[in-house]
Amino acid sequence: MEDHVIAMYCFVDDLLKAKGAKTDKRAKMSDSMILTTALVAAHYFGCNFESARAYMQAHQGVRLLDKSGFTRRLHQLEDTLTALFCSMGQALKQLNTASQYVIDSFPVAVCRNIRIPRCRLLKGEAYRGYNASRREYFYGFKVQVITTADGLPVEYFIVAGEYADVTAFQAMNPDLPEGSVLYGDSGYTDYEQEDYYQDCEGVDLQIQRKKNSLRKDHPAQAFLKQHYRKRIETVFSELTSRFPKSIHAVTAKGFLLKITLFLFAYSFHKAIA
What we know:
Blueprint: H1 2-18, H2 31-44, H3 49-59, H4 67-76, H5 78-95, E1 100-111, E2 128-131, E3 136-148, E4 153-160, H6 165-172, E5 181-184, H7 191-201, E6 204-207, H8 219-240, H9 252-272
Parallel strand pairs: 1-5, 5-6
Antiparallel strand pairs: 1-3, 2-3, 3-4
Helix pairs in contact: 1-2, 2-3, 2-9, 5-9
């Protein structure tokens, strides 16, 4: 664990230096250490920052801020965290010589359905979505994730739970290298979008076909699409297994920040494994 934490710190610190980011001289704790502690919390402690702070102080000898100071600094670094994930994703895309990717989504509920009327984190029917795999409704967000064929997340996009996958994908506007192949399930069916990406972006969208589809697949195509999609289901299973039963957050912004931390920590862990 200690070697993994040190590697994570070096990675974050190098990325920040490459971007020319500098910590305020008056700060008692560097930006690199703030982000590393948050990622340690996501990977090992279910995003419990207090447990991560205690570990870093006991095992890494880190001089830590108090709870409120740490949380305030972390929220100030939210955009930096997103930029670092994008940089890591771009690096993984360059290393992905096969240029094969998979897209899918998973739901993240903020509370149980019975508690929706008392939920203070979110308000409105836009967050009520349907989880087809479990045949149940949920209240929260839907996370769109693009991974390599090996299961490394390289892009993500978070929308309210009611949004269909194809609608979220249209807003996501993924940045994939020319010549890439992107596999997805039938929920991403949009013939115009497939034609656009093929003609303008040089990206081949390989979407699973419904029984009534106007564009039928050959058996070999259907097999390939199903084969590549199985991997991302395993990724979601591994990723969400690190989630606590309930992600604690005071604001919706803090809730989304923790989802980003979970994705970042998972992607980094799988990349160096």
